[in-house]
Design goal:
This protein is 70% helix and 0% strand. It is mostly helical.
């Protein structure tokens, strides 16, 4: 896939995601900006993980350029400074519209370690994704595990 095509696919995905979340933003005008920001970040993670997961599971044909673009996006997302998105008092016991457990704020060292593990797993995926399908598949476990480790510890069930 050419860089232009990868860019256009990314642009289309961003436009689609923006359109899909516009209705949510209008409905949730009173939502806490920190919660909105971190939920938007999680949607971006999910979008890129979905691209990789669909290829890994054989639901979509493997495309080295698209896989690499998604993996590179995950590296960029995991390198963002997100501290302000995790403002005290934005847990599920304090406000509606979030599943973040209050224990997250009591365990910031562990949260930081889990974020570091996610960044390392994203780097691993970036090294593997554009190589071949088997390499991408091998990097999915650590990446999914890094996400799950934090969610199991600090996210309330639906």
């Amino acid at each position: 896939m050419s860089k232009t095509r990868a860019f256009l696919l990314g642009l289309a995905a961003t436009a689609t995601l923006g359109t899909a979340t516009l209705g949510t933003a209008v409905v949730a005008q009173d939502a806490n900006p920190a919660v909105t920001a971190r939920q938007s970040l999680m949607r971006l993670y999910a979008f890129n993980l979905g691209t990789l997961g669909a290829m890994a599971q054989g639901n979509v044909e493997y495309d080295a350029d698209a896989a690499q673009a998604a993996a590179d996006n995950l590296v960029k997302l995991s390198s963002l400074s997100v501290g302000p998105m995790w403002a005290a008092g934005t847990d599920d016991m304090s406000i509606e519209g979030t599943r973040a457990l209050p224990t997250l704020w009591d365990n910031m060292a562990d949260v930081g370690a889990k974020a570091g593990a996610l960044a390392a797993a994203a780097e691993g995926m970036a090294a593997a994704a554009g190589t071949d399908l088997a390499s991408l598949q091998g990097a999915m476990g650590p990446l999914g595990g890094a996400c799950a480790d934090c969610h199991k510890a600090y996210r309330a069930p639906e």
